[in-house]
From TrEMBL:
Protein name: Dihydrofolate synthase/folylpolyglutamate synthase
Originating organism: Pseudoalteromonas piratica
One annotated GO biological process: tetrahydrofolate biosynthetic process
Family in the record: Belongs to the folylpolyglutamate synthase family.
Residues of the Mur ligase central domain: 52-192
Keyword annotations of the record: ATP-binding, Folate biosynthesis, Ligase, Magnesium, Metal-binding, Nucleotide-binding
SUPFAM superfamilies listed in its UniProt record: MurD-like peptide ligases, catalytic domain (SSF53623), MurD-like peptide ligases, peptide-binding domain (SSF53244)
An example molecular function term from Gene Ontology annotations: dihydrofolate synthase activity
EC numbers: 6.3.2.12, 6.3.2.17
A cellular component term, taken from the record's GO annotations: cytoplasm
Pfam families for the chain: Mur_ligase_C, Mur_ligase_M
Record function comment: Functions in two distinct reactions of the de novo folate biosynthetic pathway. Catalyzes the addition of a glutamate residue to dihydropteroate (7,8-dihydropteroate or H2Pte) to form dihydrofolate (7,8-dihydrofolate monoglutamate or H2Pte-Glu). Also catalyzes successive additions of L-glutamate to tetrahydrofolate or 10-formyltetrahydrofolate or 5,10-methylenetetrahydrofolate, leading to folylpolyglutamate derivatives.
Length: 422
């Protein structure tokens, strides 16, 4: 099938439609094709790259690293996926999204350079981000690894540090169904001559074995550094270094991972600078407050580990006497039962929404998995997130908290609904 190739004057939307059409598979594991293109166009030798892998916490760790580096006057390029509302969210220079034309120029350059090598949507987007960084030349580049690590398109670069945030079960059909198997895939971003930082609190043996095999030096949570969260402070300790910092708006575990990465690279600023950064750091879609009256939060939690963190946040409000209402929308290939199990103790009222996106599940199917975890569960089904929000808002009062969660698509729908509402 012949596809009409967009030009440098085409719209970003035209290019994204083209990217979706040129490869027969949504996910095509392997680095051969991507590396061929990357080496040809000079992407594999980009300087000062930090690779960030993990089941959860990649986005918040990257945001934390980005903010701390920017506070010291460095320029920073950041690549993350997926996006919530706009494709432009995937690539940032100095914390800011880029205009459409920058993405179009990068896509055009990549299209001209790839020849007849086929690329998936994600691979094309990843290489285009590297093209942006090649042109903009930031001091540091933060690459959020997509699926796994070993075979992810980001893994064609040579990093100055490799970071693993957490290990949990997700994408089991690609990464394996045990933490040992998943850990080995994530450890595929390690290099013999670059330090590795692992923030997981129960590091699988497969990570240690692979690091030893490579000769990679690993700095590990609870072994080489630690953190403690109290009501008023986050205390971080690494060797002789002790920092007392404000309680962050993102998971303390990810903050500690970011601090350790910068400490390892001799890029950690003074405590005062860190305190200012953490006091103002928020990340979209991670227990994001959409409204204070009524009280509405949105969270992309879609696997057991992220759901457990969400439950801890909801528990804080339950302790204050809040009545917690949940509106959940999830993808078909997620462990819905485990997610529901993780949050069920903190939810008083359930609403389930169908998602119309690719792999989006129907509310009726969600209800079967909810019943499996809460036998006598009561719930209301909705045809969409927007319809669910419209319905729930009619009954909310000042004692209620609504949490919208279950996937990036669910949160994106909630944010879009709220923007239209305003």
């Amino acid at each position: 099938m012949t596809h009409v190739v967009p030009s440098q004057s085409s719209s970003l939307e035209d290019w994204l439609c083209y990217l979706e059409s040129i490869h027969p598979q949504n996910i095509d594991m392997g680095l051969t094709r991507v590396r061929q293109v990357g080496e040809k166009l000079g992407y594999t030798s980009l300087p000062n790259v930090i690779l960030i892998a993990g089941t959860n916490g990649k986005g918040t760790t990257a945001r934390c690293l980005e903010a701390i580096l920017l506070a010291q006057g460095y320029s920073v390029g950041t690549y993350a996926s997926p996006h919530l509302i706009r494709y432009n969210e995937r690539v940032r220079i100095n914390g800011a999204e880029l205009p459409d034309q920058d993405h179009v120029d990068a896509f055009h350059a990549l299209e001209q350079g790839r020849g007849d090598i086929s690329l998936t949507y994600f691979e094309f987007g990843t290489l285009a981000a590297l093209e942006v960084f090649k042109q903009k030349q930031p001091d540091y580049i933060l690459l959020e690894v997509g699926l796994g690590g070993r075979l992810d398109a980001t893994n064609i670069v040579e990093p100055i540090a490799s970071v693993i945030t957490t290990i949990d079960l997700d994408h089991k059909e690609y990464l394996g169904d045990t933490r040992e198997l998943v850990g080995r895939e994530k450890a595929g971003i390690f290099r013999a001559d670059a330090p590795a930082i692992v923030g997981d609190l129960a590091i699988p043996q497969s990570i240690w074995h692979y690091a030893e095999e490579l000769g990679t030096h690993v700095t590990a949570a609870q072994k080489n550094y630690s953190y403690r969260l109290s009501t008023d402070y986050l205390t971080y300790q690494n060797g002789d270094l002790t920092l007392t910092l404000p309680v962050p708006n993102i998971p303390a575990q990810n903050v500690a991972t970011a601090l350790t990465t910068l400490h390892t690279l001799a890029l950690l600023p003074d405590q005062n600078t860190l305190s200012k950064v953490l006091a103002n750091l928020t990340v979209e879609g991670r227990f994001q407050c959409l409204s204070k009256q009524p009280l509405v939060f949105a969270d992309v939690a879609h696997n057991p580990e992220s759901a457990r963190y969400l439950a801890s946040k909801l528990g804080e409000f339950k302790a204050q006497g809040k009545h917690v209402i949940a509106l959940a929308g999830m993808l078909q290939d997620k462990d819905q039962k485990a997610v529901f199990n993780a949050v069920k103790a903190e939810v008083d009222e359930w609403h389930l929404a169908s998602l119309s996106c690719f792999r989006g599940d129907q509310a009726e199917n969600l209800s079967l998995n909810l019943k499996a975890e809460i036998v006598d569960s009561q719930f209301t089904l909705h045809t969409s997130v927007a319809q669910g929000l419209t319905s729930v808002f009619k009954t909310m009062d000042e004692e209620d908290l609504l949490i919208v969660f279950g996937s990036f698509y669910t949160v994106a729908d909630a944010i879009a609904f709220w923007q239209n509402k305003e």
